[in-house]
Amino acid sequence: MRGRAPLYRRTAVAVIALLACAALVTALMWNSVFELAFLSQVTLTPTSRGYKEWVAPSLPLFFNVYVFNWTNADRFPEELPNLEELGPYRFREHRRHINVSFNNQNHSVSYRTQRSWYFDEEFSNGTMKDNITIINVIAASAVYRSRHWGFIQQKGLSMGLAMLGQGFSVTRTAEELFFEGYEDPFLDIARILPSTTTGGAPPVDRFGLFYERNNSMDTEGLVEVATGEASGTYPGQILRWNNYESLPFYEGACSQITGSAGEMMAHNLTEEPFTLFVPDLCRTVHLEYNSSGSLDGVLYNKYTMTEASFDNSSRSPDNACFCSGECSWSGTMNVSACRYGSPAFMSLPHFLYGDPELRSYVTGLSPDPELHSFYFAIEPRLGVPVDVAGRFQFNIFIEPTPNIA
């Protein structure tokens, strides 16, 4: 004859079932609890931990500059330019956000970024006194600006270049080419010319690749990002740039200002492309998922620029609206529209993923994905960068102009 189970056994079963239910509920709630706790720390509010690290990052930042020394400039155009890569010239970077203003109505914060660079001779392969020969950017820009001028105007420019001793190349020290800048008589003339002639470029007394960027508050412009408080947004999601909600340089999808501003990312990232707004490019870029890995025990997703990033639409039709002016080669981005009409083109270093024709015009280039790729490695759940390499190459477009010697 079967009897009823003892009371202690039935009670034990009930307790175990209750504990199992509690464990299940806790597990189901944990993600929500974690999300709330995490968001409270990274939301860009004056009292959050994330804000304090964002407004003045404590992590060490480095800016490495490589430059191509033109070794046979005196034999151009008889010989192909031979380029010798020099560097890195390493600079320690101190960054802080200033003029921070919160807008409680749309849960956003606007700011400017001030960057200060200090030369780190110990970890550099070169000194600021190195002599370097590069193309004469000032003369090349003037010629590019004149490409649609009439015969008499172009001849006038040609005479002016000759009278001022403007050659095809210049040799300057590294400190002059980088931050200090150097004087040039052509700049003195440019300051008195009408803005229609100079493309609206602000008058400067010196030229340098990074002249007036050190300690400047205007390099990256006025940026407005979401604080992450509003539903459907995340901290650091760009909303406006220089008061633009869409870019005036491009049309259609290419004019969109979207994605991360580059310092804070969405969390729970997947293998979908990662979107980033880059002020130096004046555009949004999409980084493709590349791989997953671990760095010091932290899991990450790696997102990189690919062959499609700077494609001239030959393989990526969506890039057609970025072709503002000359757009002949895949692998280069024409940014002249947001550089006052100067012949500025951006690419990955050594024309990585670029049209092979680009490398046929010079010697000394050797693209290597390990050395020259642009990538973000991000802890996917928290959206925290664990390794970043933001690599670009600045190029000047030139072409023969019949009326200019």
UniProtKB/TrEMBL annotation:
The protein's matches in PROSITE patterns, at most eight in alphabetical order, are given as:
PROKAR_LIPOPROTEIN (PS51257)
Cellular component GO terms held in the UniProt record: cytoplasm; plasma membrane
InterPro entries membership:
CD36_fam
Where is the major localization of this protein?
membrane
Keywords, comma-separated and alphabetical:
Cell membrane, Glycoprotein, Membrane, Receptor, Transmembrane, Transmembrane helix
Name its cellular compartments.
Answer: Cell membrane
One GO MF term, please? scavenger receptor activity
Transmembrane among keywords:
yes
- Give the record's family classification: Belongs to the CD36 family.
Protein known as: Scavenger receptor class B member 4
Which organism is this entry from?
Danaus plexippus plexippus
Q: Taxonomic classification, please?
A: Eukaryota, Metazoa, Ecdysozoa, Arthropoda, Hexapoda
